[in-house]
Protein backbone atom coordinates (compact mmCIF):
# COMPACT_ATOMS: atom_id res chain seq x y z
CA UNK A 1 0.00 0.00 0.00
CA UNK A 2 1.58 3.73 -1.17
CA UNK A 3 1.52 7.39 -0.04
CA UNK A 4 -2.06 8.60 0.54
CA UNK A 5 -1.66 12.30 -0.26
CA UNK A 6 -0.49 12.73 3.31
CA UNK A 7 1.72 15.77 2.85
CA UNK A 8 -0.78 17.60 0.69
CA UNK A 9 -3.51 16.93 3.23
CA UNK A 10 -1.62 18.07 6.31
CA UNK A 11 -3.08 21.58 6.18
CA UNK A 12 -6.60 20.19 5.85
CA UNK A 13 -5.94 17.87 8.77
CA UNK A 14 -4.64 20.68 10.97
CA UNK A 15 -7.56 22.89 10.00
CA UNK A 16 -9.98 20.25 11.21
CA UNK A 17 -8.29 19.58 14.54
CA UNK A 18 -10.37 22.20 16.37
CA UNK A 19 -13.54 20.63 14.99
CA UNK A 20 -12.52 17.06 15.77
CA UNK A 21 -14.92 16.35 18.62
CA UNK A 22 -17.96 17.63 16.73
CA UNK A 23 -17.00 15.71 13.62
CA UNK A 24 -16.45 12.51 15.54
CA UNK A 25 -20.00 12.68 16.87
CA UNK A 26 -21.36 12.94 13.34
CA UNK A 27 -19.50 9.78 12.40
CA UNK A 28 -20.10 7.66 15.47
CA UNK A 29 -21.41 9.13 18.70
CA UNK A 30 -20.28 6.14 20.72
CA UNK A 31 -16.60 5.74 19.82
CA UNK A 32 -15.27 8.25 22.34
CA UNK A 33 -17.18 6.48 25.10
CA UNK A 34 -16.44 2.86 24.19
CA UNK A 35 -14.34 0.63 26.39
CA UNK A 36 -12.01 0.14 23.41
CA UNK A 37 -11.32 3.87 23.38
CA UNK A 38 -11.12 4.33 27.14
CA UNK A 39 -8.90 1.31 27.77
CA UNK A 40 -6.21 2.24 25.24
CA UNK A 41 -3.16 3.74 26.93
CA UNK A 42 -1.26 5.82 24.36
CA UNK A 43 2.07 5.06 25.98
CA UNK A 44 1.34 1.38 25.49
CA UNK A 45 0.16 1.94 21.91
CA UNK A 46 3.47 3.60 21.01
CA UNK A 47 5.85 1.62 23.18
CA UNK A 48 9.00 0.13 21.66
CA UNK A 49 8.47 -3.21 19.88
CA UNK A 50 11.68 -3.45 17.90
CA UNK A 51 12.72 -6.94 16.77
CA UNK A 52 16.37 -7.67 16.08
CA UNK A 53 17.02 -8.91 12.55
CA UNK A 54 20.61 -9.99 12.20
CA UNK A 55 20.29 -11.98 8.98
CA UNK A 56 23.16 -10.45 7.07
CA UNK A 57 22.33 -12.38 3.91
CA UNK A 58 18.93 -10.67 3.66
CA UNK A 59 20.43 -7.19 3.92
CA UNK A 60 23.17 -8.06 1.42
CA UNK A 61 20.58 -9.26 -1.10
CA UNK A 62 18.43 -6.15 -0.59
CA UNK A 63 21.34 -3.73 -1.00
CA UNK A 64 22.62 -5.52 -4.09
CA UNK A 65 19.16 -5.58 -5.68
CA UNK A 66 18.51 -1.93 -4.85
CA UNK A 67 21.72 -0.68 -6.42
CA UNK A 68 21.14 -2.72 -9.57
CA UNK A 69 17.68 -1.21 -9.84
CA UNK A 70 18.94 2.35 -9.36
CA UNK A 71 21.63 1.89 -11.98
CA UNK A 72 19.03 0.85 -14.54
CA UNK A 73 16.14 3.13 -13.51
CA UNK A 74 17.94 6.32 -14.55
CA UNK A 75 17.78 5.31 -18.21
CA UNK A 76 14.02 4.77 -18.22
CA UNK A 77 11.40 7.35 -19.30
CA UNK A 78 10.01 9.91 -16.88
CA UNK A 79 6.98 7.72 -16.15
CA UNK A 80 9.23 5.40 -14.12
CA UNK A 81 11.06 8.14 -12.21
CA UNK A 82 10.17 9.71 -8.88
CA UNK A 83 7.62 12.42 -9.52
CA UNK A 84 4.44 14.21 -8.57
CA UNK A 85 3.46 13.66 -4.93
CA UNK A 86 6.37 11.33 -4.20
CA UNK A 87 9.00 13.92 -5.14
CA UNK A 88 8.73 16.02 -1.94
CA UNK A 89 8.82 12.81 0.12
CA UNK A 90 12.12 11.85 -1.50
CA UNK A 91 13.59 15.31 -1.20
CA UNK A 92 12.70 15.73 2.47
CA UNK A 93 12.79 12.27 3.99
CA UNK A 94 14.62 9.63 1.96
CA UNK A 95 18.19 10.90 2.06
CA UNK A 96 19.34 8.72 4.97
CA UNK A 97 18.04 5.42 3.65
CA UNK A 98 19.33 6.18 0.15
CA UNK A 99 22.75 6.96 1.60
CA UNK A 100 22.81 3.72 3.61
CA UNK A 101 21.80 1.63 0.61
CA UNK A 102 24.10 3.27 -1.93
CA UNK A 103 27.16 3.20 0.34
CA UNK A 104 26.55 -0.51 1.03
CA UNK A 105 26.27 0.21 4.75
CA UNK A 106 24.69 -3.04 5.91
CA UNK A 107 24.72 -2.23 9.63
CA UNK A 108 23.05 1.18 9.26
CA UNK A 109 20.52 -0.14 6.75
CA UNK A 110 19.54 -3.00 9.04
CA UNK A 111 19.31 -0.70 12.07
CA UNK A 112 17.05 1.72 10.20
CA UNK A 113 14.81 -1.06 8.92
CA UNK A 114 14.48 -2.53 12.41
CA UNK A 115 12.79 0.76 13.29
CA UNK A 116 11.24 1.61 9.91
CA UNK A 117 7.72 2.34 11.19
CA UNK A 118 9.19 5.23 13.17
CA UNK A 119 11.81 6.33 10.64
CA UNK A 120 11.57 8.72 7.68
CA UNK A 121 12.23 5.86 5.24
CA UNK A 122 8.56 4.78 5.54
CA UNK A 123 7.08 8.29 5.37
CA UNK A 124 3.72 8.21 3.59
CA UNK A 125 3.20 4.47 3.95
CA UNK A 126 1.24 4.38 7.21
CA UNK A 127 -0.29 6.53 9.95
CA UNK A 128 -2.25 9.76 9.99
CA UNK A 129 -1.87 12.61 7.48
CA UNK A 130 0.61 14.48 9.66
CA UNK A 131 4.25 14.15 10.67
CA UNK A 132 3.96 11.02 12.80
CA UNK A 133 7.50 11.33 14.17
CA UNK A 134 6.94 14.83 15.54
CA UNK A 135 3.39 14.25 16.74
CA UNK A 136 3.38 10.71 18.10
CA UNK A 137 6.88 9.28 18.43
CA UNK A 138 8.41 11.94 20.67
CA UNK A 139 6.82 10.68 23.90
CA UNK A 140 4.75 13.86 24.37
CA UNK A 141 1.39 13.24 22.72
CA UNK A 142 -1.18 15.97 23.30
CA UNK A 143 -4.70 15.12 24.48
CA UNK A 144 -6.19 16.21 21.16
CA UNK A 145 -3.66 14.27 19.06
CA UNK A 146 -4.23 11.23 21.25
CA UNK A 147 -7.99 11.45 20.81
CA UNK A 148 -7.63 11.81 17.04
CA UNK A 149 -5.33 8.79 16.84
CA UNK A 150 -7.52 6.52 18.98
CA UNK A 151 -10.75 7.65 17.37
CA UNK A 152 -9.31 6.82 13.95
CA UNK A 153 -7.97 3.44 15.13
CA UNK A 154 -11.20 2.31 16.83
CA UNK A 155 -13.28 3.51 13.92
CA UNK A 156 -11.17 1.48 11.48
CA UNK A 157 -11.39 -1.62 13.66
CA UNK A 158 -15.18 -1.35 13.86
CA UNK A 159 -15.35 -0.70 10.11
CA UNK A 160 -13.31 -3.87 9.51
CA UNK A 161 -15.68 -5.88 11.71
CA UNK A 162 -18.69 -4.55 9.82
CA UNK A 163 -17.22 -5.19 6.36
CA UNK A 164 -16.23 -8.75 7.27
CA UNK A 165 -19.52 -9.54 9.05
CA UNK A 166 -17.63 -10.35 12.26
CA UNK A 167 -16.22 -13.49 10.63
CA UNK A 168 -12.71 -13.00 11.95
CA UNK A 169 -10.98 -12.86 15.31
CA UNK A 170 -8.68 -10.11 16.54
CA UNK A 171 -5.86 -12.62 16.23
CA UNK A 172 -6.46 -12.70 12.47
CA UNK A 173 -5.02 -9.18 12.37
CA UNK A 174 -1.69 -10.34 13.75
CA UNK A 175 1.41 -9.10 11.94
CA UNK A 176 5.06 -9.66 12.95
CA UNK A 177 6.66 -6.78 14.86
CA UNK A 178 9.41 -6.14 12.30
CA UNK A 179 9.88 -2.40 11.91
CA UNK A 180 9.00 -1.49 15.53
CA UNK A 181 5.29 -0.95 14.90
CA UNK A 182 2.77 1.10 16.83
CA UNK A 183 -0.95 0.37 16.99
CA UNK A 184 -3.80 -0.06 19.43
CA UNK A 185 -5.35 -2.66 21.70
CA UNK A 186 -8.59 -4.60 21.42
CA UNK A 187 -9.35 -6.78 24.44
CA UNK A 188 -5.67 -6.53 25.40
CA UNK A 189 -4.54 -7.83 21.99
CA UNK A 190 -2.20 -5.56 20.04
CA UNK A 191 -3.26 -4.59 16.51
CA UNK A 192 -0.59 -3.10 14.27
CA UNK A 193 -1.73 0.15 12.69
CA UNK A 194 -3.35 -0.45 9.29
CA UNK A 195 -3.66 -4.21 9.81
CA UNK A 196 -7.44 -4.11 9.49
CA UNK A 197 -7.24 -2.37 6.10
CA UNK A 198 -4.60 -4.75 4.79
CA UNK A 199 -6.40 -7.85 6.06
CA UNK A 200 -9.69 -6.74 4.52
CA UNK A 201 -8.28 -6.22 1.04
CA UNK A 202 -6.30 -9.44 1.20
CA UNK A 203 -9.57 -11.17 2.10
CA UNK A 204 -11.34 -9.53 -0.85
CA UNK A 205 -8.57 -10.55 -3.23
CA UNK A 206 -8.64 -14.10 -1.92
CA UNK A 207 -12.36 -14.25 -2.64
CA UNK A 208 -11.85 -13.04 -6.20
CA UNK A 209 -9.31 -15.68 -7.19
CA UNK A 210 -10.35 -19.17 -8.21
CA UNK A 211 -9.52 -21.77 -5.56
CA UNK A 212 -9.25 -24.43 -8.27
CA UNK A 213 -6.10 -23.05 -9.83
CA UNK A 214 -2.85 -24.83 -9.04
CA UNK A 215 -0.94 -21.56 -8.91
CA UNK A 216 -2.34 -18.09 -8.29
CA UNK A 217 -0.72 -14.81 -9.29
CA UNK A 218 -1.43 -11.45 -7.66
CA UNK A 219 0.33 -8.25 -8.70
CA UNK A 220 0.47 -5.18 -6.49
CA UNK A 221 1.57 -1.83 -7.83
CA UNK A 222 3.09 0.04 -4.89
CA UNK A 223 3.29 -2.46 -2.04
CA UNK A 224 4.30 0.05 0.65
CA UNK A 225 6.27 -1.90 3.23
CA UNK A 226 4.74 -5.28 2.28
CA UNK A 227 1.66 -5.37 4.53
CA UNK A 228 -0.81 -6.55 1.91
CA UNK A 229 1.76 -9.02 0.60
CA UNK A 230 2.03 -10.42 4.13
CA UNK A 231 -1.69 -11.13 4.46
CA UNK A 232 -2.01 -12.41 0.89
CA UNK A 233 0.86 -14.83 1.48
CA UNK A 234 -0.86 -16.05 4.65
CA UNK A 235 -4.32 -16.38 3.10
CA UNK A 236 -3.78 -17.80 -0.39
CA UNK A 237 -2.20 -21.19 -0.92
CA UNK A 238 0.13 -21.68 -3.88
CA UNK A 239 0.42 -17.95 -4.43
CA UNK A 240 3.01 -15.95 -6.30
CA UNK A 241 2.81 -12.38 -5.00
CA UNK A 242 4.53 -9.88 -7.30
CA UNK A 243 5.20 -6.34 -6.12
CA UNK A 244 6.33 -3.45 -8.32
CA UNK A 245 7.47 -0.25 -6.64
CA UNK A 246 10.05 2.50 -6.60
CA UNK A 247 13.43 0.99 -5.65
CA UNK A 248 13.46 2.50 -2.14
CA UNK A 249 10.06 1.06 -1.28
CA UNK A 250 10.94 -2.17 -3.06
CA UNK A 251 13.88 -2.58 -0.68
CA UNK A 252 11.70 -1.97 2.39
CA UNK A 253 9.09 -4.48 1.20
CA UNK A 254 11.84 -7.05 0.68
CA UNK A 255 13.05 -6.53 4.26
CA UNK A 256 9.62 -7.00 5.81
CA UNK A 257 8.51 -9.99 3.75
CA UNK A 258 11.82 -11.85 3.78
CA UNK A 259 11.97 -11.62 7.56
CA UNK A 260 8.28 -12.48 7.95
CA UNK A 261 8.53 -15.56 5.70
CA UNK A 262 12.02 -17.04 6.05
CA UNK A 263 10.87 -20.31 4.46
CA UNK A 264 9.31 -18.81 1.33
CA UNK A 265 11.21 -18.48 -1.92
CA UNK A 266 11.77 -14.79 -2.68
CA UNK A 267 13.09 -13.41 -5.96
CA UNK A 268 14.64 -9.94 -5.93
CA UNK A 269 15.54 -7.78 -8.88
CA UNK A 270 18.85 -8.84 -10.43
CA UNK A 271 18.61 -12.40 -9.13
CA UNK A 272 16.64 -13.77 -12.07
CA UNK A 273 14.46 -12.76 -15.00
CA UNK A 274 10.77 -11.98 -14.70
CA UNK A 275 9.71 -14.96 -16.81
CA UNK A 276 7.20 -17.79 -16.64
CA UNK A 277 9.63 -20.22 -15.06
CA UNK A 278 10.57 -17.94 -12.18
CA UNK A 279 7.02 -16.75 -11.60
CA UNK A 280 5.94 -20.35 -11.21
CA UNK A 281 8.87 -21.21 -8.94
CA UNK A 282 8.89 -18.31 -6.46
CA UNK A 283 6.37 -17.39 -3.74
CA UNK A 284 7.27 -13.69 -3.58
CA UNK A 285 8.75 -11.58 -6.38
CA UNK A 286 9.83 -8.01 -5.63
CA UNK A 287 10.74 -5.79 -8.56
CA UNK A 288 11.34 -2.12 -9.37
CA UNK A 289 8.50 -0.30 -11.12
CA UNK A 290 10.09 -0.36 -14.58
CA UNK A 291 10.08 -4.17 -14.62
CA UNK A 292 6.30 -4.18 -14.95
CA UNK A 293 6.73 -4.00 -18.72
CA UNK A 294 8.49 -7.39 -18.58
CA UNK A 295 5.69 -9.19 -16.76
CA UNK A 296 4.28 -11.81 -19.18
CA UNK A 297 0.96 -10.88 -20.75
CA UNK A 298 -2.23 -12.16 -19.11
CA UNK A 299 -0.20 -13.63 -16.26
CA UNK A 300 -1.75 -12.04 -13.17
CA UNK A 301 -5.12 -13.24 -11.94
CA UNK A 302 -5.56 -9.86 -10.26
CA UNK A 303 -3.74 -6.53 -10.06
CA UNK A 304 -4.19 -4.24 -7.05
CA UNK A 305 -3.28 -0.65 -6.22
CA UNK A 306 -3.98 1.35 -3.10
CA UNK A 307 -4.04 5.17 -3.38
CA UNK A 308 -0.85 5.78 -5.34
CA UNK A 309 -2.21 5.85 -8.90
CA UNK A 310 -4.20 9.05 -8.34
CA UNK A 311 -1.04 10.67 -6.98
CA UNK A 312 1.00 10.12 -10.14
CA UNK A 313 1.38 12.20 -13.28
CA UNK A 314 -1.00 11.58 -16.17
CA UNK A 315 1.78 10.01 -18.24
CA UNK A 316 2.73 7.67 -15.39
CA UNK A 317 -0.90 6.67 -14.77
CA UNK A 318 -1.43 5.92 -18.45
CA UNK A 319 1.79 3.90 -18.59
CA UNK A 320 0.92 1.77 -15.56
CA UNK A 321 -2.72 1.23 -16.56
CA UNK A 322 -1.64 0.07 -20.02
CA UNK A 323 0.80 -2.43 -18.53
CA UNK A 324 -1.61 -3.67 -15.86
CA UNK A 325 -4.34 -4.31 -18.43
CA UNK A 326 -1.87 -6.14 -20.66
CA UNK A 327 -0.47 -8.31 -17.87
CA UNK A 328 -3.73 -9.10 -16.04
CA UNK A 329 -6.22 -11.69 -17.22
CA UNK A 330 -9.14 -11.27 -14.83
CA UNK A 331 -9.45 -8.43 -12.29
CA UNK A 332 -8.08 -4.94 -11.70
CA UNK A 333 -8.91 -3.81 -8.17
CA UNK A 334 -7.93 -0.44 -6.73
CA UNK A 335 -8.65 2.16 -4.05
CA UNK A 336 -8.00 5.75 -5.08
CA UNK A 337 -9.13 9.35 -4.85
CA UNK A 338 -12.11 10.27 -6.98
CA UNK A 339 -11.81 14.05 -6.70
CA UNK A 340 -8.63 14.96 -4.79
CA UNK A 341 -6.10 14.49 -7.54
CA UNK A 342 -3.67 16.81 -9.28
CA UNK A 343 -3.60 14.65 -12.39
CA UNK A 344 -6.26 12.05 -13.28
CA UNK A 345 -9.15 11.27 -10.98
CA UNK A 346 -9.81 7.60 -10.39
CA UNK A 347 -12.89 7.65 -12.63
CA UNK A 348 -10.66 8.79 -15.51
CA UNK A 349 -7.98 6.09 -15.38
CA UNK A 350 -9.27 4.52 -18.58
CA UNK A 351 -9.61 0.95 -17.37
CA UNK A 352 -13.19 0.44 -18.57
CA UNK A 353 -13.17 -0.62 -22.23
CA UNK A 354 -14.20 -3.50 -24.53
CA UNK A 355 -12.32 -5.97 -22.30
CA UNK A 356 -12.66 -4.61 -18.77
CA UNK A 357 -15.98 -3.62 -17.25
CA UNK A 358 -16.60 -1.80 -13.99
CA UNK A 359 -18.22 -4.28 -11.62
CA UNK A 360 -18.67 -1.76 -8.84
CA UNK A 361 -17.51 1.55 -7.40
CA UNK A 362 -18.15 2.12 -3.71
CA UNK A 363 -16.89 4.57 -1.08
CA UNK A 364 -13.88 3.23 0.80
CA UNK A 365 -14.83 4.57 4.22
CA UNK A 366 -11.61 3.73 6.06
CA UNK A 367 -10.69 7.33 6.79
CA UNK A 368 -14.11 8.60 7.88
CA UNK A 369 -12.94 8.46 11.50
CA UNK A 370 -10.70 11.44 10.84
CA UNK A 371 -12.13 13.03 7.68
CA UNK A 372 -15.88 13.15 7.05
CA UNK A 373 -15.13 14.63 3.63
CA UNK A 374 -13.06 11.65 2.58
CA UNK A 375 -12.60 11.17 -1.14
CA UNK A 376 -11.58 7.52 -1.49
CA UNK A 377 -13.40 4.94 -3.57
CA UNK A 378 -12.95 1.26 -4.22
CA UNK A 379 -13.12 0.09 -7.85
CA UNK A 380 -13.35 -3.43 -9.22
CA UNK A 381 -12.97 -4.10 -12.94
CA UNK A 382 -13.28 -7.58 -14.41
CA UNK A 383 -13.06 -9.30 -17.76
CA UNK A 384 -15.75 -11.83 -16.95
CA UNK A 385 -19.14 -11.61 -15.30
CA UNK A 386 -18.85 -14.63 -13.04
CA UNK A 387 -20.28 -14.42 -9.53
CA UNK A 388 -17.95 -12.52 -7.22
CA UNK A 389 -17.54 -13.16 -3.50
CA UNK A 390 -15.35 -10.60 -1.79
CA UNK A 391 -15.23 -12.09 1.69
CA UNK A 392 -13.91 -15.65 1.88
Based on the model shown, name its key terms.
two-stranded antiparallel ribbon; 392 residues; 10 strands; disordered N terminus; Rossmann fold; alpha/beta
Quick overview of this protein structure:
The chain is of the alpha/beta class and 392 residues long. 39% of the residues lie in helices and 15% in strands.
- CATH fold-level assignment of one domain: Rossmann fold
Q: Could you give a short account of the major beta sheet?
A: 8 strands, mixed
Order of neighbouring strands in the sheet with most strands: 5-6-4-3-7-8-10-9
H/E order of the elements? HHHHHHHHHHEEHEHEHEHEEHEEE
Q: Strand content of the residues, in percent?
A: 15-25%
* The first-level CATH class name of one domain: Alpha Beta
Q: Could you state the CATH homologous superfamily of one domain?
A: Vaccinia Virus protein VP39
Please state the second-level CATH architecture of one domain. 3-Layer(aba) Sandwich
Helix content: 25-40%
Query: pLDDT under 50 segments (min length 5)?
Result: 1-18
Estimated radius of gyration: 20 Å
Number of helices: 15
Structural class: alpha/beta
Question: What general outline do the C-alpha atoms trace?
Answer: globular
Termini separation comes to 21 Å
Mean pLDDT: 90
| DSSP, total strands | 10
Amino acid sequence: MSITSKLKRVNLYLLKRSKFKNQSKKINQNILNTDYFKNNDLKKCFKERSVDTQNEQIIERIIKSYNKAKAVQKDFPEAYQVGNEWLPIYQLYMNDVIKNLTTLDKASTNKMYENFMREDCSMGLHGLPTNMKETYFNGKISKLDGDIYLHDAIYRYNHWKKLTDNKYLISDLYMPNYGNPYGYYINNEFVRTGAEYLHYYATCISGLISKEKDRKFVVELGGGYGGLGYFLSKKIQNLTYVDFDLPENMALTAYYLMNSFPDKKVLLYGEGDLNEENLNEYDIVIMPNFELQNLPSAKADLAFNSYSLAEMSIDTINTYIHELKRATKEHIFHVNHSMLSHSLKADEFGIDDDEYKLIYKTPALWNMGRDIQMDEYEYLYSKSSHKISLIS
